[in-house]
Amino acid sequence: MPFVWDASFTTGSTEIDRQHRRLFEQVAALDSAMKQGKGRQEIGAILDFLGEYVVKHFADEERLMEETRCPAAAANQQAHAKFLSTYAELRSRFDRAGGAAALVLEIHDVLSKWLVGHIRGIDTRLRECIGKAAPSAACAVR
Ligand SMILES: [Fe+2]
């Protein structure tokens, strides 16, 4: 599956789209490392980056959904919490056993499938909310 950004991933927020692209870049970096036989070497750094970055990204995105009264806000929070527990489980397996090829491949597949499904299924619902919330003063009005 080619893992490239296209218009189907846009959320209506330049900042959230930028953060999503950075997440895509991590999967692309892992993909190319695996193709060069270096997945095992790179996976630790990628997991380190993701562990910090997704927490910030999720917080930014959840705040924006709250501010724009997006109906997908609760589902988004739940999906993020579920992803964080999946991440923690993969991370602990990596910490215990190292980056065996099968685990590197599994992490790559989990990340790429989750990002594509989650962004298209939930995050893109921001588009309609951001449109309705502008100008920002409208956010305060029920
Ligand atoms: Fe999200």
Summarize the structure.
The protein is 74% helix and 0% strand.
Bound ligands, named by name, code or SMILES: fe (ii) ion
Regarding quaternary structure, what we see is single chain
Which series of helices and strands comes N to C?
A: HHHHH
From the spread of the alpha carbons, the general shape counts as elongated
In the CATH hierarchy, what is the architecture at level 2?
A: Up-down Bundle
Q: Helix count, per DSSP? A: 5
Query: Unreliable stretches, pLDDT < 50, 5 or more residues?
Result: 137-142
The number of distinct β-strands equals 0
Rg, rounded, reads 16 Å
The CATH class:
Mainly Alpha
Count of the separate structural domains: 1
CATH superfamily: Hemerythrin-like
Instruction: Kindly state the percentage of residues in helix.
Output: over 70%
CATH topology: Four Helix Bundle (Hemerythrin (Met), subunit A)
Overview of the molecule:
- The protein has 142 residues and is mainly alpha-helical.
- The chain has a single domain, classed as Hemerythrin-like (Four Helix Bundle (Hemerythrin (Met), subunit A)).
- Helices cover 74% and strands 0% of the residues.
- It is built from five helices and no strands.
- α1 runs antiparallel to α4 and α2 packs antiparallel against α3.
- The longest helix has 29 residues.
- The chain is elongated, with a radius of gyration of 16 Å.
- The C terminus is likely disordered.
- It binds fe (ii) ion (FE2).
- The site of fe (ii) ion (FE2) has 6 residues, from α3.
